């Protein structure tokens, strides 16, 4: 139901049950505030959103906190009322009483709510002396800085960290004017969402440590919208660049994906392009050569391949769709391979087919669900933001109980108390203990091979058949829900799990939605493009060149397959980071990373999203290099997409993912630089300056000339069309001796690009092998031993939660298989 | 006719007026300390460089001729790794001095900046940083930033 109010003399409609602050914000009226956050509701801690509220026209009115009172019909709200403005001015002066005057040395300066509010409230001169309340700061790990003196006690940090992200180790200590937000003792923040503290803190208590090291003021950076390349969720990010250096990554709001937050892998992972292992120079037979020479050598090797059986192209789920397509066009569809082992290719093909026939859940749908089943997926490791959405969904029961007690939904703290800690049904079926166990109503442990069977048992129970008690309880919880979501993914490498998840979603039709998480950013795009596994590539006869596109094959298949594939062939590797594959390639060509080239990735919901070059000076885009090898004459991304849509009609819609390069705002191109960009003329000499560079692939300018970003045009487009489901894949045979693999997923480190980010590598615990003590004793291995497994050496951790006969290994290749750990010398 | 004579008289009188021309460069003009000429970076009373690389001078500069790049000492103190002023662009408006919260950047009464090459007019930190305190002898930003504990504080008080 809508209510009518008058805000500063303007008639506005609002939804009943909203707070005044939300109503004002939705109406486009700014009310000063610190503690209120649209994702976290109201708590009334900062007292800044004071407004004059009149119940009716003639009412003299009272000062109220806009975030704490509900809208009502006929209300008059005066934000600019002198009494309310004076009240807010006093609040600011109180807050500034203990806030240091160190804006000059604060990273937040220039993008600080407290700064803005202080100026806006007219508090220009301090009446108190310079002596302040002083706190000792803590070391909170490699991601986040801590400067407690700047705190204004809005409680946003603990409300996010504990209430939204489910962290336990950040809390508030002390009382009255000496409250302290931090850990009980110095130490690394445990939550994989800790980076959000930098964005959520309205002042400079928590800041991005990586940004601080290569600091530039917020007004001094080129802002380019992009898409996170570190998992299949495809969160929207903003890349901030100055002097051709990526300085920070921020969350860019997408209503269906990441409305407000970003995981640490997404925030710090993209900095890999500035890491020491970023690939910058071309090589030929181990010697550094100019890029032109390497390109010529590669082109010649591909040209002579025609007489040797043709060149082979190895694609990548890390590369953009355009780059994979350009490679496929160069070598021909029958010589294009997906760059994964055959089992993973089949897995992702099956995943794509299930999604095409399902009602797909976006992250927003997951967060709004009232019952969730997670089948086999370690969401916190494989798709951290999906885990955050699950955490929000689990509060649905709490909100429902609070609503029964007539507690307004916006009163966050009251809802938590009135909700009595009730949790919405969350059935979590995983092989090992999971980060979401604490909020799961049904935390269930099953061996990897039994998870699909358990899923089918739930589907059977939903159809009214008898099933084991756990499955029946799960089925009952899902059947009682009005908007259940079924979540599975590629994390266990088992296509049968996907089949089971799809079967449950079908049994719950039409209420249920399905979310299946592929392994990587563009796994789905690669699956839709086609291409067989690496084993098939190794079987291709002939001696033509192998072109490996942005892929470290050593993490994809066993070394024997790579040896067979590379034997007697010229190996050309195109990549943006140094990998084990670029180390052995004959010709290494540096190409643009996701942050330096326009391209398209398909996320877990089949949404095509565009990345855009964020640094003006970088290596050429892989698709441009590959198109040139084949004599393609595409001038820009738009032309290549036309060719892609012609050759692969399933991608016809991707051009709608973002505006074409010819798009213009009323003020021309879209400006990357803010209007107040400084230092432009610090090094120039009049008359001798080159024209600013042009971006042929996007409508963005590299300067402050142009209009504002039309964010609604950069939200991507869903491209999945209903398709016939291929026959069920054969259950992977994992016979032989050894321990059955349980893939472990690290929220901070999955791929070679994660490890190439210096700041993320400092946070990641590193790969591990986890064994049950009984298995370790049988293999005569002790805790902490360095163990050799699949050609890698990893430390052994004893863990009684690993089922006997299984081994947990941090690995990207999830194909079910057996491991033979051996003590390393 | 009379008008012409009057003009001649008026001009002729100037022969006996005191001369205004100064023999620059042999005679240097006396300029006020507030004169807005060549920009320098000063040091605080402890001899530490005052600049904390806050970038306010760069952002206020109407011709964008200042570039500052922040770095941090091991103690966490900010300082400029790069401080560059392009005097070929500078209009000597003095807004940078007004914006500076640490009194680091100051304009001096030196205006003799002419050079033969434009590149010589790009001044980097070694060219800008002087040994003295400039116009504000006693000023120390860190004394008024509100971040240092008063001398008689009980360290236990600083803990959470």
Q: What topology, given as strand order, has the largest sheet of chain B?
A: 2-3-5
Overall domain count of chain A: 5
Lateral strand order in the biggest sheet of chain A: 14-13-24-23-22-15-16
- The DSSP helix count of chain B reads 5
How many strand units of chain B? Answer: 5
Strand percent estimate of chain A:
15-25%
Number of helices of chain A: 27
Percentage of residues in DSSP E strands of chain B: 15-25%
Task: Report the principal-axis shape of chain A.
Answer: globular
Unreliable stretches of chain B, pLDDT < 50, 5 or more residues? none
Alpha-carbon Rg of chain B, integer? 24 Å
Keywords:
heterodimer; A: 825 residues; alpha/beta; N-terminal domain of TfIIb; Rossmann fold; 5 domains; seven-stranded mixed beta sheet; 27 helices; 28% helix; globular; B: 160 residues; alpha+beta; three-stranded antiparallel beta sheet; 5 helices; 5 strands; elongated
Report on this structure.
The complex is a heterodimer of chains A (825) and B (160). Chain A has 5 domains: 2-95, Ubiquitin-like (UB roll), CATH 3.10.20; 133-274, Single Sheet (N-terminal domain of TfIIb), CATH 2.20.25.90; 282-345 and 528-675 and 695-718, Rossmann fold (3-Layer(aba) Sandwich); 360-511, 3-Layer(aba) Sandwich (Dimethylsulfoxide Reductase, domain 2), CATH 3.40.228.10; 739-823, Barwin-like endoglucanases, CATH 2.40.40. In chain A, 28% of the residues lie in helices and 18% in strands. In chain A, the strands form 9 sheets. Chain A has a 7-stranded mixed beta sheet. Chain A has a 7-stranded mixed beta sheet with strand order 35-30-34-31-33-32-36. In chain A, strands 2-1-5-3-4 form a 5-stranded mixed beta sheet, sandwiched between helices. In chain A, strand 23, helix 22 and strand 24 (587-590) form a beta-alpha-beta unit. Chain A is globular. The N and C termini of chain A lie far apart (72 Å). The mean pLDDT of chain A is 93. Chain B has a domain at 38-45 and 96-141. Chain B has helices at 2-13, 56-60, 95-99, 125-128, 141-144, and strands at residues 39-41, 66-72, 78-86, 105-107, 122-123. Chain B has a 3-stranded antiparallel beta sheet. Chain B has a two-stranded antiparallel sheet with strand order 1-4. The longest helix of chain B is centred in the first third of the chain and has 12 residues, at 2-13. The radius of gyration of chain B is 24 Å and the shape is elongated. Chain B starts with a helix and ends in a 16-residue tail after the last helix.
């Amino acid at each position: 139901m809508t209510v009518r109010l008058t805000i500063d003399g303007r008639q506005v409609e609002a939804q009943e049950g909203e707070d005044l602050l939300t109503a004002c914000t939705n109406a486009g009226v700014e009310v000063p505030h610190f503690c209120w956050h649209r994702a976290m509701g109201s708590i009334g801690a900062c007292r800044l959103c004071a407004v004059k509220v009149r119940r009716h026209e003639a009412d003299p009115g009272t000062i109220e906190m806009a975030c704490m009172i509900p809208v009502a019909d006929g209300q008059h709200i005066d934000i600019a009322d002198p009494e309310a403005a004076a009240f807010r001015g006093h609040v600011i002066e109180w807050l500034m009483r203990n806030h240091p005057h160190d804006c000059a040395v604060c990273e937040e300066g220039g993008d600080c709510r407290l700064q803005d509010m202080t100026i806006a409230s007219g508090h220009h001169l301090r009446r108190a002396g310079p002596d302040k309340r002083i706190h000792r700061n803590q070391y909170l790990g490699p991601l986040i800085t801590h400067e407690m003196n700047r705190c204004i006690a809005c409680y946003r940090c603990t409300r996010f960290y504990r209430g939204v992200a489910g962290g336990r180790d950040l809390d508030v200590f002390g009382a009255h004017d000496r409250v302290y937000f931090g850990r009980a003792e110095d130490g690394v923040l445990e939550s994989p969402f800790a980076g959000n503290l930098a964005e959520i803190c309205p002042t400079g208590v928590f800041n991005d440590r990586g940004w601080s090291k290569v600091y530039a003021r917020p007004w001094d950076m080129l802002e380019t919208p992009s898409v996170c390349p570190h998992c299949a969720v495809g969160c929207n990010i903003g890349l901030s660049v100055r002097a051709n250096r990526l300085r920070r990554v921020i969350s860019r709001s997408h209503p269906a994906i990441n409305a407000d937050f970003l995981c640490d892998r997404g925030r710090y992972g993209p900095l890999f392009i500035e890491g020491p292992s970023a690939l910058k120079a071309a090589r030929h037979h181990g010697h550094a050569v100019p890029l032109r020479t390497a390109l010529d050598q590669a082109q010649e090797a591909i040209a002579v391949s025609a007489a040797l059986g043709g060149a082979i192209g190895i694609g990548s789920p890390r590369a953009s769709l355009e780059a994979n397509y350009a490679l496929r066009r160069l070598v021909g569809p029958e010589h294009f391979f997906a760059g994964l082992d055959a089992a993973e290719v089949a897995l992702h093909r099956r995943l794509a087919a299930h999604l095409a026939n399902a009602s797909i859940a976006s992250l927003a749908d997951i967060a709004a669900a009232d019952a969730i089943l997670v089948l086999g997926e370690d969401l916190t490791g494989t798709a951290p933001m999906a885990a955050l959405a699950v955490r929000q969904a689990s509060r649905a029961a709490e909100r429902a109980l609070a609503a029964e007690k007539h507690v307004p939904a916006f009163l966050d703290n009251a809802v938590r108390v009135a909700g009595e800690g009730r949790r919405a049904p969350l059935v979590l079926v995983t092989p090992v203990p999971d980060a979401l166990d604490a909020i799961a109503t049904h935390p269930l442990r099953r061996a990897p091979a039994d998870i699909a069977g358990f899923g089918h048992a739930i589907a059977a129970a939903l159809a009214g058949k008898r099933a084991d008690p756990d499955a029946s309880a799960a089925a009952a919880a899902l059947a009682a829900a009005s908007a259940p979501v079924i979540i599975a993914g590629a994390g266990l490498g088992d296509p049968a799990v996907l089949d089971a998840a799809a079967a449950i979603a079908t049994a719950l039709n039409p209420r249920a939605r399905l979310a299946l998480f592929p392994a990587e950013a563009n796994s789905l795009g690669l699956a839709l493009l086609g291409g067989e596994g690496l084993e098939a590539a190794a079987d291709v006869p002939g001696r033509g060149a192998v072109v490996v596109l942005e892929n470290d094959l050593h993490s994809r298949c066993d070394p024997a397959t790579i040896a067979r594939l590379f034997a007697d062939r010229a190996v050309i590797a195109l990549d943006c980071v140094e990998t084990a594959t670029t180390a052995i390639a004959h010709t290494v060509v540096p190409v643009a990373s996701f942050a330096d080239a326009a391209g398209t990735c398909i996320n877990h919901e089949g949404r095509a999203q565009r990345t855009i070059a964020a640094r003006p000076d970088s290596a050429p885009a892989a698709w441009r290099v590959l198109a040139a090898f084949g004599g393609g004459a595409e001038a820009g991304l738009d032309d290549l997409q036309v060719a892609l849509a012609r050759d692969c009609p399933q991608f016809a819609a991707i051009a709608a993912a973002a505006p074409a390069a010819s798009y213009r705002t009323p003020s021309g191109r879209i400006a990357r630089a803010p209007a107040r960009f400084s230092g432009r003329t610090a090094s120039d000499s009049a008359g001798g300056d080159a024209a600013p560079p042009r971006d042929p692939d996007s409508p963005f300018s590299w300067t402050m000339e142009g209009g504002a970003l039309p964010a609604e045009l950069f939200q991507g487009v869903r491209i999945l069309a209903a398709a016939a489901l291929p026959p069920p894949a054969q259950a992977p045979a994992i016979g032989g001796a050894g321990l059955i693999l349980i893939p472990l997923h690290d929220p901070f480190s999955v791929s070679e690009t994660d490890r190439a980010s210096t700041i993320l590598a400092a946070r990641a615990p590193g790969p591990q092998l986890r064994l049950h003590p009984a298995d370790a004793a049988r293999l005569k291995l002790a805790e902490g031993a360095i163990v050799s497994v699949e050609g890698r050496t990893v430390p052994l951790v004893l863990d009684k939660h690993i089922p006997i006969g299984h081994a947990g290994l941090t690995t990207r290749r999830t194909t079910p298989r057996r491991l033979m750990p051996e003590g390393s010398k | 006719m009379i008008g012409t004579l009057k003009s001649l008289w008026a001009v002729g009188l100037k022969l006996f007026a005191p001369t205004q021309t100064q023999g620059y460069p042999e005679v240097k003009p006396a300029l006020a300390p507030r004169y807005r000429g060549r920009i320098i970076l000063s040091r605080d009373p402890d001899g530490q460089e005052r600049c904390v690389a806050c970038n306010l001078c760069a952002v206020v500069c109407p011709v964008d001729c200042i570039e500052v790049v922040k770095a941090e000492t091991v103690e966490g103190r900010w300082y400029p790794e790069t401080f560059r002023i392009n005097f070929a662009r500078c209009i000597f408006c003095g807004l940078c001095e007004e914006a500076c919260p640490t009194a680091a950047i100051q304009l001096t009464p030196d205006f003799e900046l002419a050079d033969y090459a434009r590149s010589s007019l790009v001044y980097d930190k070694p060219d800008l940083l002087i040994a003295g305190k400039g116009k504000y002898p006693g000023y120390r930003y860190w004394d008024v930033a509100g971040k240092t504990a008063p001398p008689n504080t009980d360290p236990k008080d600083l803990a959470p």
